[in-house]
């Protein structure tokens, strides 16, 4: 069977560096005119057809992106607004919980049922993770709708509730704070712990703190939060870009922290308040090792794997309070409560509220941009006991007279 003959147009010619070429012009995907060249009409015709096919494909994908393609575009648009750490978290959650189940579908094909099916695996995850993924889905599809890529938004009517409820951690009691400080006294995490408990700094704020922002000899000693720490490929990066505008604040500090910082400054050879042996800010793995001094002294159950006759055997150990670690008798299990870096900050905020500091002032000292965050903690602190509610109700209605 004879091959169908191409209907090759007559192209114009142009001479470049003494060589004769056939030339034509087409519009690219951005509407700009580009030139194509060929030594023969047949070669130029094939180039033109391939170029037009690629342009049509690009335009089609712009107007009809897959979920994976639009997720990538949305992340790029967010890169100018959010921190690299936040962007990294978004990308990870998108990959695992959005792109994996929906990535190959065109955005316009996705239905509300597809969204609900994608959220099913998150029912066994934490409430916070479910909320984050739900938020990302809505941001992506509402953005596509605003860009007129969708006639119907499948996220409308999707409930934000789901996942396993996250257990709210109570702040440390005064007794627990005393035990914790006694436990870490003289150990690497002591200074970080003091800053968290008595200045309420976030981890990234404490690890970026430099001595030029610690004013110990001022009439009212204070810490000025001006820098933030983050980790990139396990390397510390210090920047002046804070979590929010509200994170930039000056925090008066109590005498116990002033004395602690004064002692640390006298012994310091670094511009950083918390530094490694070379005077540099801690890397992520270095901070984990520092915090491990606290973890190994807790009575929290541990899981180990031991090789016996070539097989990996899993076994658990439940340390007893006051006991000593088998391999290192100098380590005493003195903490029968959980401690996290964030719990130090939460304890600071809670203690301010217990002391009667008004929520607006607490919001400033904590660096909360949204007052709802402060008020949620305030409500838990002030009204977490029946007798407190009883007093509030009776005070409100003490003049009421029964009919």
From TrEMBL:
What InterPro entries is this protein classified in? CB (IPR044068), DNA_brk_join_enz (IPR011010), Integrase-like_cat_sf (IPR013762), Integrase_catalytic (IPR002104), Integrase_recombinase_N (IPR010998), Integrase_SAM-like_N (IPR004107), Tyrosine_recombinase_XerCD (IPR050090)
Q: Its GO biological process terms?
A: DNA integration; DNA recombination
- State the signal peptide span: none
The record's annotation in Pfam families points to: Phage_int_SAM_3, Phage_integrase
State the superkingdom: Bacteria
Q: Which organism is it from?
A: Enterocloster bolteae 90A9
> Keywords for this entry?
DNA integration, DNA recombination, DNA-binding
Name under which the protein is recorded? Site-specific integrase
Q: What does the sequence similarity comment in the record state about its family?
A: Belongs to the 'phage' integrase family.
Q: Which GO terms describe its molecular function?
A: DNA binding
Where do the Core-binding (CB) domain residues begin and end?
A: 65-145
Q: What PROSITE patterns does this protein map onto?
A: CB, TYR_RECOMBINASE
Task of the protein:
Site-specific tyrosine recombinase, which acts by catalyzing the cutting and rejoining of the recombining DNA molecules.
- Domain Tyr recombinase, which positions? 167-391
